[in-house]
Amino acid sequence: MSKENECKSGEVCPSKKTLSREEIEDLKERLALQDNLSGVKHKIIVLSGKGGVGKSTIATNIAAALSMKGKKAGLIDIDIHGPSIPKMLGLEGRPLRGSEEGMLPIDYSDNLKVISIGFILRTQNDAVIWRAPLKHSLIRQFLRDVRWGELDYLVIDSPPGTGDEPLSVIQLLEDADGAIVVTTPQDVALADVRKAITFCRQVNLPIIGVIENMSGFVCPYCGKTVDIFKSGGGQKMALEMGVPFLGKIPIEPKIVETGDSGKPYLQYYHDSETSKAFDLVITPLLALSDERKYSENVKTCMRCKE
Ligand code: ADP
Does the C-beta of 55 come closer than 6 Å to ligand 1? Predict the structure, then answer.
């Protein structure tokens, strides 16, 4: 029996130490999750320091942009207290379906599959009052039990801040490609986004880059740019903290309009300046190596780390 198989069987670890029941259960969970996501090439977590900076809008449009480039994309909304992705994609009220193998994500299009707690709540006004273990278990279900199949990218829209949900998803995934951190240019947003970057570093999650959203507004009447929320703060902060800067997305009234009417902006305005800004933002994602990453941690024994 190979070392790896011995460890997977949960009976003995490669160094012949017996595993406790909890260690065996934990190892089985991790292997089941990794097995379920074995067809997913890249896992990207979208984070923000604060709410309302446009994180879900960016996550939705990144997933839509990737799918429009012919990539197979999945989008997980783990914003348990404020799931907005079903509304942003016009999928509200869609019932979740199951198959013999497990839960199926909702198809927005041939190339874009979505899951959200919003599909589980009975009405949009239902409030979720859950403690951390329940949230962790829902996130684990989205990753372990939803049949994602073959995907080029799995984009995870995390709630704002550095609380239970982002921590759960990072711990469960183990091998995410990294985080995209969304901010707006004001100092109050930047203070929180610095914490989000420090959080990523503390949990060893690579940072793909920072996006400065709502950066400047081009007046449709006079063509002048007005920096309503300032501009350039996110870029400066990324430089100071030594993380890549992915680009600026301007304030665009059509983003609000399309988001409210359930259509990803990029699908409807693909030739606009804002779409060009999104193209720049997803360039590093398209450049990620196509080789599948597997977590080395899962292959080692959790007790002796061999
Ligand atoms: P978060 O996920 O950070 O809480 P949302 O994505 O829900 O933020 O966005 C909050 C609001 O801001 C939404 O109404 C959305 O349409 C709007 N919004 C996001 N980005 C932009 C932008 N670049 N220009 C204009 N409105 C935007």
Answer: yes
